[in-house]
Every structure is written in C-alpha cells, then in structure tokens.
Design the sequence.
C-alpha cells in the first residue's frame, strides 16, 4: 500500500496524540469525519495501522538492560526456534536475517545476572547452535517512523510544510524557521 499526504498527516497526528477521536482528527486535518474514518479503516485493513498501544519505558518497568543476540540455528528450524523464543517473556523481537547469524533477537533484563538467565533460556532452545550477545549502552536513535511519515506528508523534520527555493534547497532550515521571512 502506498500512503498519500493525507494518510501521512493523519498518522502523524495520531502518533502525537493517539487518543484523539475521529471528529477531532477531521477538524485538525480540515477534512470530513467520514474521510478520516474511511482512511483509518483502509489503513487498518491493509495492516499499515496496527493499533494504538501506549509507548512504554522498559527501564521504568524494571527492565533497564537491553541486549541483542545473534543466533545461529540448525537449518530448517526457524519456525520452531522462533516459536520457542516467543515463549520467553524477555524476548522483545526476533528478525530472520542474512549474514553471520540466522536470527537477530532483542532481549531485555533487569540486571546482568538476569540477562545471564535470559541468555541461558535462549541457548536452551532446541535448534539454537550458537549465540553472540551484545549489551546496548544507550539508544541514540530510538525506533521511529516519524521521518518517513513527514517525508510523505511533504514536511521537513521541523514539522512545517517544506518548500523548495529555486536552487532546490529547502526554505525551512534546521530550526524549523522559514528562512525566507
């Protein structure tokens, strides 16, 4: 599915204020309520919009340690291994990859000792042959989709509509202020 500018503007609005109702979204976007509802229905049916969960701080929940494990697994066992990993509560996500390993796994833990317990569980999954784990020290760029939505919506990172000068450069600078004024 390809998003258009209105889809992107709607998703940006809901990213910033996920509890807004359809009527308020329509008012802020300057479109009919039915248009917003139809867009939400289409975005949901296509799988682009999967829900409105709250954004949670794992450290605030007691899971202040994040680690990434690259797993080498026995051939033909990806589904089985992925299912077993999904049963481990501290496994936040699993990606099938190319390159050195077969699966890239993000896990969280309460402490180094707790991480050892989680890794022991991961290594104990039938089909896991080898693992290499790295602890995240910080997250300088957290998971995000906003820049992609802003590009589709025709906006700069400052959130204002972006226009181009005759030389092809943006009229909106890094501060989000239109230089032409």
Sequence:
């Amino acid at each position: 599915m390809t998003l258009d500018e209105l889809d992107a503007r709607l998703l940006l609005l809901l990213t910033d204020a996920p509890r807004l109702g359809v009527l308020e979204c329509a008012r802020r976007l300057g479109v009919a309520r039915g248009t917003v509802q139809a867009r939400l229905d289409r975005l949901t049916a296509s799988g682009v919009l999967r829900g409105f969960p709250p954004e949670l701080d794992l450290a605030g929940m007691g899971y202040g340690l994040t680690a990434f494990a690259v797993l080498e697994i026995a051939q033909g066992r990806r589904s089985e291994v992925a299912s077993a990993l999904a049963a481990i509560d501290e496994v936040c996500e699993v990606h099938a990859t190319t390159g050195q390993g077969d699966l890239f796994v993000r896990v969280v833990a309460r402490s180094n000792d707790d991480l050892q317990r989680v890794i022991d569980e991961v290594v104990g999954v039938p089909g896991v042959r080898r693992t290499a784990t790295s602890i995240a020290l910080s997250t300088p760029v957290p998971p995000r989709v906003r820049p992609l939505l802003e590009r589709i919506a025709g906006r700069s990172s400052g959130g204002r509509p972006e226009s181009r000068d005759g030389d092809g450069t943006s009229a909106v600078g890094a501060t989000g202020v239109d230089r032409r004024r």
